[in-house]
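Listing S7. Sequence submitted for prediction.
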Amino acid sequence: MARTLKLRCPTCKKPVTSKDTDFPFCSERCRLIDLGKWASGKYVISSPVSDTDDEIDAESDEKP
């Protein structure tokens, strides 16, 4: 027996299941709204944050 996930559409929050054709969205409309947010820059994947104290310590450990 296959397990069915029950989640909510990330755009409109309507319930969806993993067997829906537009999963994880409830419809093509919500899928396109999400795509538009990525294209316009509203969603971004941040770069890793580096600790400047670690960089300073690494530089001071180096011997000339």
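Caption to Listing S7: primary sequence and predicted structure tokens for the chain studied. The first strand starts at residue 6 and ends at 8. The chain has two helices and two strands.
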